[in-house]
Amino acid sequence: MNRDVVIIGGGLSGLAAAIGLIRGGVRPIIIETRRKLGGRATSFIDPRTDQVLDNCQHVLMGCCTNLMDFYEHLGVLDLVQWHRTLYWADPPRPPCPMTIGRLPAPLHHALGFMRLGLFSMRQKRALARAMWRLIRMGPSGRIQWRHRTFMEFLRETGQDEDLVERFWNVVVVSACNLDVEHVGAEPAMKVFQEGFLANRFSPAMGLCTVPLIDLYDPALEMIQEGGGEVRIGTSVKSIAFDGSRVTSVITEHGTISATSVISAVPPDRLLKLVSGTLMDADSRLRRLDQIQVSPIVGVHMFFDQPVMELPHVILPGRMTHWLFNKGEDERGLQHVHAVISGAADLMDRSEQEIIDSVLADLHWAIPSSRGLKPVQARSVKERRATFAAVPGIDSIRPSTRPEHARGDGVSNLLVAGDYTDTGWPATMEGAVRSGYAAAEAITGKPTLVPDIPVGPLAWLMGLRERA
């Protein structure tokens, strides 16, 4: 069988590549091992509750321009509900709201920060000092921090231990899936510069109002209508290489010849598909085994009494980082979803231990819930949820396009995935960007969407690229 392009993997990066190719007039085929699309950003039917549950709550922000473009092309952007207020737990008082204000960026959070009762005035001054440093250094200033941790930056700007634990860490671990002691300074700085400070809409938080898997049906239809194909439940065994080009993909059911191949699977999976000869010919593949991973744990709890009224609550300084109110299911039970990022310490703990700890955090954050216990609960461990954005990671992340490889590269092998050199942390936005970049390399037609523009005042204050 012959195809224009074979895409290995039906996660976000693979789907984004396919949509980009269809828009460019190219007919791809997606080969996906599992019997559903979405990769790590998907859903499953829980046999205990018979409910469709997301693996973990996934969030998009206003700065995620390519992810929004992807959803818009699928016709599902209206299924995203936007929140301009973040609620920080502050027991025994009600959660503190931090709302995007009317001042221009980067001052739009100033009033919200000042009103947060979580921190002293001394801590707020220290926080403002660090934010000002991030503004003044601009994106180019991150380069000098490439091989240092974000914790080093926080120490240098006088952030005390309590402020680090209850503000900086909860934001960074949620965005980068690694705590401030271990995450590289460069990706963490990007989170604040582009996700908090650049534009008033940048920090707006988008939550899908349907299970993640429901977002992908339109993608399947769009690919098929464009002459493409999706094969689920089919495993790729290897990528064939003739010494200069990849020629086909070998599956359990046969060989699919292709003009180009896009790998949209995690790095450990890609390593199993390539031969030593192909690895020798493409420098992008030789350091994939150095990419570390970081886990996430999600806990789904169902209550027969009301527990949460707010759409979400951030838990500063606790094991649990976020609680999301998923509303009532068809049984009349309130569904609360807890997320613990950078959860390496939980991988050896039992499900009941994790649920008990999360329930204690819920009772701490929402005192009115004390005494209530879920009628059903389950935890989901994603052991290889994301790549670990450690210091110096950008020297390891492979380029999507072979001509951008540091050395040699096989011309018709494209590499997509959030772990590639998108410049973004491990996010859905990074995954979509990599897929779009792969499609763009094949079609030659613009697919990637520009970043959200930096506000005029933020630009004048220094939050801009410098020559």
Which structural class best describes the helix and strand composition?
alpha+beta
Mean pLDDT over the full residue set: 96
Q: What is the CATH topology classification name of the largest domain? A: FAD/NAD(P)-binding domain
Please state the oligomeric state of the protein chains shown: single chain
The CATH class of the largest domain: Alpha Beta
The appropriate CATH architecture of the largest domain is: 3-Layer(bba) Sandwich
Catalogue the unreliable spans: none
Biggest sheet overview? 7 strands, mixed
Shape: globular
Q: How would you name the CATH homologous superfamily of the largest domain?
A: FAD/NAD(P)-binding domain
Proportion in β-strands: 15-25%
What is the share of helical residues?
25-40%
Cα-based radius of gyration, to the nearest Å: 22 Å
Distinctive features:
Polyamine Oxidase, Chain A, domain 2; 3 domains; globular; 13 helices; single chain; Guanine Nucleotide Dissociation Inhibitor, domain 1; FAD/NAD(P)-binding domain; alpha+beta; 467 residues
Q: What features would you describe in this structure?
A:
This protein has helices at 12-23, 65-74, 110-115, 121-137, 150-156, 161-176, 185-197, 217-225, 267-273, 276-281, 351-365, 428-443, 456-461, and strands spanning 2-8, 28-32, 43-46, 51-54, 59-61, 80-83, 85-90, 93-99, 205-208, 229-232, 236-241, 246-251, 254-263, 293-303, 312-314, 322-328, 334-341, 376-387, 413-415. It is of the alpha+beta class. The protein has three domains: 2-44 and 211-289 and 393-443, 3-Layer(bba) Sandwich (FAD/NAD(P)-binding domain); 99-199, Guanine Nucleotide Dissociation Inhibitor, domain 1 (Orthogonal Bundle), CATH 1.10.405; 293-387, Alpha-Beta Complex (Polyamine Oxidase, Chain A, domain 2). The strands form five sheets. Strands 1, 2, 10, 11, 12, 13 and 19 form a seven-stranded mixed beta sheet that branches. Strands 15-16-17-14-18 form a five-stranded antiparallel beta sheet. A hairpin with a 4-residue loop joins strand 11 and strand 12 (246-251). Helix 1 packs parallel to helix 12 (428-443) and helix 2 (65-74) packs across helix 12. The radius of gyration is 22 Å and the shape is globular. It starts with a strand and ends in a 6-residue tail after the last helix. The model has no long low-confidence stretch (mean pLDDT 96).
